[in-house]
Amino acid sequence: MSELIYLDNSATTFPKPEVVYDYMDTFYRKHGVNPGRSGFDAAIETEEIILNTRKLLMELFNGDGDPNRLTFSYNASDSLNMILLGIAQKGDHVVSTMLEHNSVLRPLHHLELDGIIESTYLPFDKNGYIHPDDIKKSIKKNTRMVVVNHSSNVIGTIQPLKEIGKICKDAGVLFIVDGSQSAGATPVDMQDMGIDVFAFTGHKCLMGPTGIGGSYVMENVPIRGTRYGGTGVRSAQKTHLSEFPYRMECGTLNIVGVAGLHAGTKWVMEQGIENIHNKEMALWNRLRKGLSEIENVTLYCANSDENQNPVLSFNLKGFESGDVGTILDVDYNIACRTGLQCAPLVHVGLGTDQIHGTVRLSIGPFNTEEHIDKAIEAVKEIAEIPR
User: Fold this and answer.
1) Cβ partners under 8 Å of residue 85, min gap 6
2) Does the CA dihedral 124-348-313-296 come out positive or negative?
């Protein structure tokens, strides 16, 4: 088999930097014990690494200074469930967008089904962006929160968070951001952008393993805990602890995941987010140009490389997106993602919901010009298959 050309980095970045593999292995061999439960040296050292990871991520996102408000979970979907269910109250109105992933859409839908909230989902323009004025116009007296996807996992557009954050602050509305595709890919400044809660995952642009993610909750955000269990602290207390990080965490943490996230985040910071982004966007531009020159290829919201992450969705006339993905996999050993990409309303906005979505190619830090050229040539050959 030829070398795998991996262009599914929006799902999970792969491969990881070698330092991540090495650090996880070394860490788990030396520190694979429960943190915060015991007083022996290995447990204390494990807790120190976890605290250092909280601090590292708090600084990366520019939280308001308390590292314990950086809490860990399985992934962004897990954190978003805790955030949305922990903030929503009966009678609330929530403003969100058609760019959202199911990690936001489904919790909100269940809250609607339970009669707790009502929701408004704003459309994006022809280039894939939400207009802040539309958010401003949608805020009502009972609007409690605005929930926005920082960067789309389908079309890669980066939303104007600072403008949206100011609108939310002026209206006294909480601003919740899904940073699944942006954490580690584009700068995030919670204080400057007016973000109240930022959810992230570790296995994408932060270059960590699967099964680790989290959120940062700014001070004075009224969020209830929704999970209860062991913390290793005040065990005789019948109710779960309300202080952070325990309000958002219970049970034993995924410590090897935290270790991998620590190593991945440090690698990203050492390389420089801007440097990684510029390299990936150069490849994105090469891919966009090459695909645009192929007859019967339609590109979606790929008109500019400004406010854009290296994600490109396309379709090939006469082919199902799933069939194109299968041919790329079987005949060319190119890994991509097809279908609705867990973001169905994006496809409603694009008009691709009735044709089973798109083919998505997403670029990572270890892709090369050769990978991009082979992908372009593969699509060109597929386009020439008689139909």
Assistant:
1) 107, 111, 226
2) negative
How many residues are given for the chain?
387
- What's the number of CA atoms in the CB half-sphere (13 Å) around residue 173? 28
CA distance linking residue 384 with residue 326, whole number of Å: 16
Could you tell me the residue range of the domain that residue 66 belongs to?
18-270
- Give the count of domains, the chain: 2
Give the CA count within 13 Å in the CB-facing half-sphere of 55. 6
Residue 104 structure tokens: 């936001």
Q: Which residues does residue 159 pair with via DSSP β-bridges, in sequence order?
A: none
Q: How far apart are CA 109 and CA 120, in angstroms?
A: 11
Rounded CA gap, 270 and 276, in Å? 10
Quickly list H helices, 311-368.
321-332, 344-350
CB 311 within 8 A of CB 283: no
Domain at 355, CATH number:
3.90.1150.10
Angle (CA) 267 273 279, round 5°: 105
Instruction: Report the C-alpha dihedral over residues 18, 278, 9, 357, rounded to 10 degrees.
Output: 180
The 3-state DSSP class for residue 195 equals coil
Sign of the Cα torsion 9, 185, 127, 293 reads negative
Same domain, 49 and 188: yes
Q: Are strands 297-300 and 311-316 parallel, antiparallel or unpaired?
A: antiparallel
* Cis geometry, peptide bond prior to residue 132 (ω within 30 degrees of 0): no
Task: Determine contact, residues 142/93, Cβ cutoff 8 Å.
Answer: yes
Domain boundary among 270, 293, 324: 270
The pLDDT tens digits along the chain (387 residues) read 469 999 999 999 999 999 999 999 999 999 988 887 777 888 888 999 999 999 999 999 999 999 999 999 999 999 999 999 999 999 999 999 999 999 999 999 999 999 999 999 999 999 999 999 999 999 999 999 999 999 999 999 999 999 999 999 999 999 999 999 999 999 999 999 999 999 999 999 999 999 999 999 999 999 999 999 998 888 999 999 999 999 999 999 999 999 999 999 999 999 999 999 999 999 999 999 999 999 999 999 999 999 999 999 999 999 999 999 999 999 999 999 999 999 999 999 999 999 999 999 999 999 999 999 999 999 999 999 988
- The terminus-to-terminus CA distance of the chain in angstroms comes to 28
Q: For 151, which DSSP code?
A: B
